[in-house]
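Side project, low priority. Logging it here so it doesn't get lost.
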Amino acid sequence: MHSGKTGAAKSGDGHRPLRFRGPKSLGQIVGAVVVVMLAAGWLVFQADKSDLPENPSSSHVGAFTVADLPKEARETLALIDSGGPFPYRQDDMVFGNREHRLPAKPNGYYREFTVATPNSNDRGPRRLIRGSEGETYYTSDHYASFHLVERN
């Protein structure tokens, strides 16, 4: 029997059906997503930079000279140049560049080496990556960013 009331019908469980509230709600959702994405991007760029030089001597963004590197990275670089031995069993293993932050090269082109991190109970986040042609990249944030190590 019809009660004579008009409007949206209720579902059998007594709850009102969900309705799209129009562009205002969509705008609020898009705005919230943008805010979250901006905050996440800011956090990535605010990663621990305590061991990065404040003013790298290179004029290229994302490039350091050997002197700009932390002491532990310079020590690892000397080990790489002399062919080892390396203190970590994972050193001199293929680096797959899965993050695609280094120039694209065939698999096996890059090798990775641990840079000791003071007060760390494990290998820590710092690495040197060496290409087959001798180019070297430093990361202090476990592959989130890289800096080309310029050598004279």
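Brief comment: The first strand starts at residue 63 and ends at 65.
Revisit when time allows.
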